[in-house]
Amino acid sequence: MTDIVRADGRATDQLREITIERGWSANAEGSALISFGGTKVLCTASFTNGVPRWLTGKGKGWVTAEYAMLPRATNSRNDRESVKGRIGGRTHEISRLIGRALRAVVDTKALGENTIVIDCDVLQADGGTRTAAITGAYVALADAIEWGREKKFIGKNATPLLDSVAAISVGIIDGTPMLDLPYVEDVRAETDMNIVVTGRGLFVEVQGTAEGAPFDKRELDALLELGLAGCETLKGHQLEALAPSEAQA
Amino acid sequence: MTDIVRADGRATDQLREITIERGWSANAEGSALISFGGTKVLCTASFTNGVPRWLTGKGKGWVTAEYAMLPRATNSRNDRESVKGRIGGRTHEISRLIGRALRAVVDTKALGENTIVIDCDVLQADGGTRTAAITGAYVALADAIEWGREKKFIGKNATPLLDSVAAISVGIIDGTPMLDLPYVEDVRAETDMNIVVTGRGLFVEVQGTAEGAPFDKRELDALLELGLAGCETLKGHQLEALAPSEAQA
Amino acid sequence: MTDIVRADGRATDQLREITIERGWSANAEGSALISFGGTKVLCTASFTNGVPRWLTGKGKGWVTAEYAMLPRATNSRNDRESVKGRIGGRTHEISRLIGRALRAVVDTKALGENTIVIDCDVLQADGGTRTAAITGAYVALADAIEWGREKKFIGKNATPLLDSVAAISVGIIDGTPMLDLPYVEDVRAETDMNIVVTGRGLFVEVQGTAEGAPFDKRELDALLELGLAGCETLKGHQLEALAPSEAQA
Amino acid sequence: MTDIVRADGRATDQLREITIERGWSANAEGSALISFGGTKVLCTASFTNGVPRWLTGKGKGWVTAEYAMLPRATNSRNDRESVKGRIGGRTHEISRLIGRALRAVVDTKALGENTIVIDCDVLQADGGTRTAAITGAYVALADAIEWGREKKFIGKNATPLLDSVAAISVGIIDGTPMLDLPYVEDVRAETDMNIVVTGRGLFVEVQGTAEGAPFDKRELDALLELGLAGCETLKGHQLEALAPSEAQA
Amino acid sequence: MTDIVRADGRATDQLREITIERGWSANAEGSALISFGGTKVLCTASFTNGVPRWLTGKGKGWVTAEYAMLPRATNSRNDRESVKGRIGGRTHEISRLIGRALRAVVDTKALGENTIVIDCDVLQADGGTRTAAITGAYVALADAIEWGREKKFIGKNATPLLDSVAAISVGIIDGTPMLDLPYVEDVRAETDMNIVVTGRGLFVEVQGTAEGAPFDKRELDALLELGLAGCETLKGHQLEALAPSEAQA
Amino acid sequence: MTDIVRADGRATDQLREITIERGWSANAEGSALISFGGTKVLCTASFTNGVPRWLTGKGKGWVTAEYAMLPRATNSRNDRESVKGRIGGRTHEISRLIGRALRAVVDTKALGENTIVIDCDVLQADGGTRTAAITGAYVALADAIEWGREKKFIGKNATPLLDSVAAISVGIIDGTPMLDLPYVEDVRAETDMNIVVTGRGLFVEVQGTAEGAPFDKRELDALLELGLAGCETLKGHQLEALAPSEAQA
């Protein structure tokens, strides 16, 4: 893309090191400890037969997500939201985003009257926590659906998963579009965008914000292109993690 | 755009009836009662000399926003968030969006150590409440800044407002991109997008979500084009409302 | 009463300008935007077929009210109670007062197992917000009951409304009893009283408080006389607003 | 007044048995365990040198009150407000009433920059808890002021207490005005009134509510007369409790 | 034990003056006002036929407890937990301790599907409030069970109470083990222990904490011996309070 | 001890597999991911120069702890305490226990006016989470103190750590005392005890509870002996983790 080399030595269109430890949790029906460089998120999927009261009897399932950060995931400690007694706006917003991203690739009719709650807890934060969370959550979700099928809560021929889904951050720094921003880049970005993309390369969510100067259509297009390529790479990591040879505990 | 005529008789690229009652509130330093068709939002701007503790001594001002809905703004009554004792995720998310949108056109150095809080209270809701809120909030903000200048809290030659800002919703319904969705269209939209645009036509925020099927780049482009045109029209309404002849107490 | 002329030019026994915009809200089953001078309260009535669990099966309906103030209704901004996470004592107290006032003129047996919630949101405050709220709430209530009758939730011959109800503030300022106090008078009043009176001129509620010196029986009698006359005038405004010629959506 | 004899054998204008145990608490600067028949309220006064921040430097003191009920004070158990995480409307309303009643007889300038918090905790409830609380709170307040004088926080010649204050409930039952209602009468009362009266016989607060049929001026006058006489008797009990021979712990 | 005489004149192995006023509350099914010297706790037992939802249909009853302190029970006033909107860690911890202590002597099958809630409210605090609460709670519990038997909610031959239970604090002060610490000793104790013991002399709970230097096995043994003897004496007070001649209101 | 072999093959006096990953977190001043078999707790220590306001100017530091569990750490998902808006009694109780345990081995004068907050977040739970938390917290604390010394916030010759500290659970199952109970044993234990022991083998905390039948002195002694030996072994693991060869970033 450009000859610019970033502080961590990456090219502008290069992801950080991505690792996915599938089945990290012995207790959850699906789980993954995902890292995007220094960002580490534990994603667990909890499968329950049945749906919330408001959905009962409609023959549909429900998928939702909750995002949170450990108090010392970041460089300086933040008070716990449980201690403050209320959840902050940012936490709410990201939880809602993750839930929408996952529901976009789930056929809730095929899921049947089952509920899957995905918890994404950031153990260590270095930028891009919401995109790592979505990417890891998909892996946990896929395993939880498989679990439900084995337990016969989901029909043998039902295919609740319509596609895979991944997410990445992109941003403009000193005029240059860059992929997968760590914290030091994130705070300097003029424009910050998170995109959520399906395995087939379609958009589920596009959220771009001018942190500094407003941006134009040309910049928007450059960011989208970078992000689509990044999500394609993430899809590869997800497929590899979910490959049968790495069978889960 | 197309020959499709909507339930309310509008063309696909046509805004609903827009009205802005500038100076609706006798008490606030700036205010506007804005309506986008059946959506009515009261925007008030409260100017305070001084800034929050964490910003003290940096020679910068602060602009923030709070969004809320009256319990019976909608078709059926919702419990008050004050009664529930907590603010919902949607409320938080929209409040944060409005604040970011306004700050994008404010030079906080030029504002000086002053704080402006914009309250956007939805009195009646029929889709697009966040976009009406941003569009009306700009009018209230402009008047509050003018008030601060008259009271000498802001320097005579300072220009805290860098540009105007407006917002509109767009969506794809039955495959057709449409502008400014009322509630009945909003619930049917496959893709729903809110865009925030400056007076110069640059993006401040682009938030697109696939409510149904994921969308591709071509659809995204069509929505952005529609939205840019809509915001250009809204800018006209804002300018008219703020024109000196309609000067207010 | 006396020759004293008040700051706003009124006689001591004169109400401020009263306006009632019946049917202000397109969504509620009954509504009124009422103003007592600079005090503006939006009253909406939400009709629901059915009653709370604790009242089920007793053949009776339920009427309740919630009062709140927009953050910038007053001269300086107050934090939202939803943000503080708790409702203040004053808000609770006024909500309870409005509910009692309305229930005093409702035959809950005739209402049948239906619930009406009246929301009174102060859009602009200049003293007497609770009395304006009660007076406007009656209009919204009357329309909601009419709506329930049209929808056959209330029997054709049932008469749930036993009487009308209105409320006004009175106070002693510099030794002189005065009617309908705006904010500037309210803060100076030695004694402050709110009275709630039915259309037939009977008391529903009498709440008098010595803000300065305690008061004697003679002063109490003077205040009650003023208030009764004021409520009689308010009844006229309510009847006019509810007159068939001003038929509502 | 009438020949009617009540369930507990009292005449219509007779108080229940009143006892005041002054100095019940070894820790508080002033305290009283007061009973009106089966209603028992522990009132403690906490004296602090200094005032809340908002009052600092004005040379004035502050008196405030908090009312609460033990969970099993009543016939069936109520959940604790601490467990529910919020204070109910009734609790707030009564706390505010007690505070106003006490401040009406305090010269805050003479009190100096000192704060007195009165806690009124209902240990057993049988109607009239707020009136017992006010009556007992006065005794605790008087002792706390005396304590402040001894500790030289209050000037030797200052007289912060302008008068005494007491309160009683009155109501109309089966058409008959009655004094000091126990729970069984309270629930049957058509009109319920609490009055707060100074030692000199002036009104501090008059709160009358039609629980059943609205009431007229004649009934109101009868209730006020009954209540004034009852408060005069309560004043005697207060004076006796505070008499020097009953010196406090 | 030693020749040491304490500030209040007691021997190191001597309890403070213990009084138990059984049946203090006219409303509760069982109650006791217990005092350990200056510590006074009102214990009330509320009997309800039926159990919480999660226990329904298992043929077992439920016993639970809530502990709280009046704001001015202590030497300086503490804010109410209801006002703070949350219950503190200490309150939670003691409530749970009391509940466990009581359940240890209850046969929930014999209790049948009935619930007993014990409220322990500290009216005055001078150390050892949790141990006084447990000791008094047993008396209230015993009477509530007797009430349930009389009302036929509990079978005639069922014996839900397996044993009695009492509790006492012990501690090491200046190297000397002492029984039943008042506040002045409690704050100086190097090691602080609360023990809960059944009538048969078996341990239900042992909670020892090194407030200063850690302690060894020999010191632990000395404290346990002291505490066992103290609980034996408390059992005598409980039996005396519950003796038939002191029949309850 | 006995010939009994447990479900997981251990002897009754044998710990589960213990691992301590020192320095797991890149951001905290000290950290350890500790596991006791299937129980995994992430302990991070946050060092701040300065102390809370109430301790300012006393020349002493402060050490405190917060414990929490991820929602799906356990076999079935628990609602987040941040979502419930309040911290449960168990969480409070364990946080307080960990804080006391650590403070028992810290000389706060030697620590100087510095604050260390230890967060113990249970990532996976299989019994004994509080004891694993204390044991791991000590390692994080030791590294944070070393960090403070390197940054010169702590004097070169100061020795804030007086000793090490570890904790273990013991219990009686089917009459047999056993060490380090996993979840399946914990729920079956008649008596459950947690003990906290310093490196020198002294008790900091002893908390024994009869979950089933009350226990006698002989059983208590057997449990204490088992626990002391277990803590001695844990000390070995702590020393090994902190050995210089495993030096940390």
UniProtKB/TrEMBL annotation, chains A, B, C, D, E, F:
Protein family per UniProt: Belongs to the RNase PH family.
Chain's role: Phosphorolytic 3'-5' exoribonuclease that plays an important role in tRNA 3'-end maturation. Removes nucleotide residues following the 3'-CCA terminus of tRNAs; can also add nucleotides to the ends of RNA molecules by using nucleoside diphosphates as substrates, but this may not be physiologically important. Probably plays a role in initiation of 16S rRNA degradation (leading to ribosome degradation) during starvation.
Catalyzed reaction equations: tRNA(n+1) + phosphate = tRNA(n) + a ribonucleoside 5'-diphosphate
Keyword Ligase in annotation: no
Stretches assigned to the Exoribonuclease phosphorolytic domain: 14-144, 164-229
InterPro entries found in the cross-reference section: ExoRNase_PH_dom1, ExoRNase_PH_dom2, ExoRNase_PH_dom2_sf, PNPase/RNase_PH_dom_sf, Ribosomal_Su5_D2-typ_SF, RNase_PH, RNase_PH_bac-type, RNase_PH_CS
Assembly with partners or alone: Homohexameric ring arranged as a trimer of dimers.
tRNA-binding recorded as keyword: yes
Record-given protein name: Ribonuclease PH
Protein source organism: Microbacterium murale
Amino acids binding phosphate: R90, G128, T129, R130
Keywords assigned: Nucleotidyltransferase, RNA-binding, rRNA processing, Transferase, tRNA processing, tRNA-binding
NCBIfam families, A to Z: RNasePH
Protein origin, superkingdom: Bacteria
Top-rank EC class of the record's enzyme: transferase
Record Gene3D superfamilies: GHMP Kinase, N-terminal domain (3.30.230.70)
Enzyme Commission number(s): 2.7.7.56
PROSITE patterns for the chain: RIBONUCLEASE_PH
